[in-house]
Amino acid sequence: MNYGNLFIITAPSGTGKSSLIKALLNSDSSISISISHTTRKPRSSEKNGQEYHFITIDEFKKMCNDNVFLEHAEVHGNFYGTSKYFIDKKLETGQDVITEIDWQGSQQIKLQYPDSIRIFILPPSFEEIRKRMIQRAQDTQETINKRLLAAYKEVKYAKDCEYLVINKDFDKALSDLRHIIKATKLRYKTQAIKNLELFTKLGVTNNDINDSIYK
């Protein structure tokens, strides 16, 4: 029996979330990222199947009807969805998975995967968010204003997460993320399943392990 960990990373736009996740994945091959489907248009630096699966609204609606998505939501006028099949397959093989998602999706996934770990990333200030959005030059001023307004609302959901990372210094924030991942891998249930032979020799029964998983 294998048992991977599911990490839900949430943050307002402009906090550096995507850059942190990319750096984390580059340094740890044992983690996969769930690539969401979205109806929004790709930015100039984005490639289909890399940052997102970019699809039409009609395609999105069909996938909803076919129950493809673990969760889906409308954010800033666009639709986003997470593939349940992808996540389950990775977890079943013992691989850890990261979902990069908004607070609405985070709540939906947590209900279905109560053992998942939620991480909220904050910027040092809202002014820093504004600067980062302007510097990346990917959004209109109107879009930036909308995202800033949304950020004020989203921050209040940080209290629902198990961990909070403040991205004031990139290297420090990345180190914090790595420590969270490492600590999660050392939880009793994860260690018991991945070291089943050792636990059996120590007199730990399958019932003991199952109780720790499903309680």
UniProtKB/TrEMBL annotation:
Q: Where in the cell is it found?
A: Cytoplasm
Record-given protein name: Guanylate kinase
Cite the Guanylate kinase-like domain residue spans from the record. 4-182
Q: Which InterPro entries match?
A: GK/Ca_channel_bsu, Guanylate_kin-like_dom, Guanylate_kinase, Guanylate_kinase_CS, P-loop_NTPase
The reaction(s) this protein catalyses = GMP + ATP = GDP + ADP
Residues that coordinate or bind ATP = A11, P12, S13, G14, T15, G16, K17, S18
Function comment = Essential for recycling GMP and indirectly, cGMP.
* Pfam families assigned: Guanylate_kin (PF00625)
What keywords would UniProt list here?
A: ATP-binding, Cytoplasm, Kinase, Nucleotide-binding, Transferase
Q: Return the broad EC class.
A: transferase
